[in-house]
Predict the structure.
Amino acid sequence: QVQLVQSGAEVKKPGASVKVSCKASGYTFTTYTMHWVRQAPGQRLEWMGWINAGNGNTKYSQKFQGRVTIIRDSSASTAYMELSSLRSEDTAVYYCARETHYGSGSYLAYWGQGTLVTVSS
Amino acid sequence: DIQMTQSPSSLSASVGDRVTITCRASQSISSHLNWYQQKPGKAPKLLIYAASSLQSGVPSRFSGSGSGTDFTLTIRSLQPEDFATYYCQQSYSSPWTFGQGTKVEIK
């Protein structure tokens, strides 16, 4: 069965960086694209970007361009999301989610359990 | 960016009620619309993809319809486990965007 297991909660100071991992199992890691989505307290889900786990190509939301980096380690079936220059507004639960294609569209059927990142001085 | 707007933002309903949630896109997204259910402290769960296709394992009381800019999620007979927040999401163009959510509460 497909599983995405994320790293544990983090507390960071403003200006620091955080790196969240997402270990995949139950499928061929390099066959699918992995997305990162975050949710600030009481807010809607917010898409951050994706990585093609096969070739390493990435696409980021313009909102996070320059601050977010998504990479993967195919040998470890793990994707990583690093967010830099953290500010209090980045306090949120960060999720990885695997993309599935249908025809010309896509959806996110498998999600990690979420990683709480708290930014506080 | 494509804006997704849900209505209502919250609703109160009783077990057995028929519930309808609406999602409107700021431009046409064809049928590239997905619905998720989220319970407190949990990751979202996919219910419907491609506007009207039921995800495997999801009860048939859930259904979706619509295309273009207007979409609907219907829960035919609300069950206790359905009290949650529901989000629509477009995958038509990047950046993918979500609605603000509809919280379904117990009346």
